[in-house]
Design goal:
Length: 219
């Protein structure tokens, strides 16, 4: 499913918002589908970002059901007075044996697998999901919620770095080997897709309040 599957010309926007900071992000520890909570700093990031995102006047919020994304979404919901729909299909990539390991440990123990992934080859990191499988589950959820928007409406999707990147790649119609070229999102930063005459376009990428490095995206 890609941008050509949407109904063009309705002026809808999709904001893909990465959750706030966690302790594992600071440790550069691969979270994947492990349920790790926000730090106090991460909660503060979510509150600051929520005030900015509220200015976009979102019509709907959908979030991963993992606590770091759900707590981030709740900050925006509190400002906007909107309910949050949770969907497990928006969880981060399941990465099997990689989960819980630091970046250095992954490179040391799974160097060939890591290098192949960075080259853009389809790799089941740690025996987990392929990036295309993550897009297969996440992108249809985003499109289904976007389809319910009014004309010129805005959907906020609260998810995870790897899932957001693969979803953007899929909605833009990019080949999977080019998805890495989109780069990661810093904690509590977001990207914006807008409808054009030929489908979805990337309007903003890694926008947000704080110029911080990308910590523990999904690598």
């Amino acid at each position: 499913m890609n941008g050509s599957d949407t109904k063009p010309g309705r002026g809808r926007r999709v904001v893909l918002w990465r959750h706030g900071q966690t302790a594992w992000n600071l440790e550069r520890r691969f979270q994947g589908s492990t349920d790790i909570e926000l730090t106090e700093a991460g909660l503060g990031q979510a509150r600051r970002a929520a005030r900015l995102l509220a200015a976009l006047k979102p019509d709907a919020i959908v979030a991963s059901d993992l606590s770091r994304a759900a707590a981030t979404a709740n900050e925006l919901a509190a400002v906007c007075g909107l309910p949050v729909t949770h969907d497990a299909a928006l969880r981060e990539t399941y990465a099997g044996a990689w989960q819980g390991l630091t970046h250095e440990e992954i490179v040391e123990r799974y160097g060939e697998q890591y290098a192949a992934w960075k080259r853009g080859e389809p790799v089941r990191r740690g025996g987990g999901e392929l990036e295309t499988e993550v897009a297969d589950r996440a992108a249809p959820v985003v499109l289904a919620h976007a389809d319910k928007l009014p004309d010129d409406g805005t959907l906020v999707v609260v998810s995870h770095g790897g899932t957001i990147r693969t979803t953007i790649g899929r909605l833009l119609g990019l080949e999977a080997r080019h998805w890495e070229g989109l780069g990661g999102l810093s904690n509590c930063c977001w990207s914006v897709l807008g409808e054009g005459a030929r489908g979805w376009r990337l309007l903003e990428h890694n926008a947000g309040t704080l110029p911080e490095p990308v910590l523990g995206d999904d690598d």
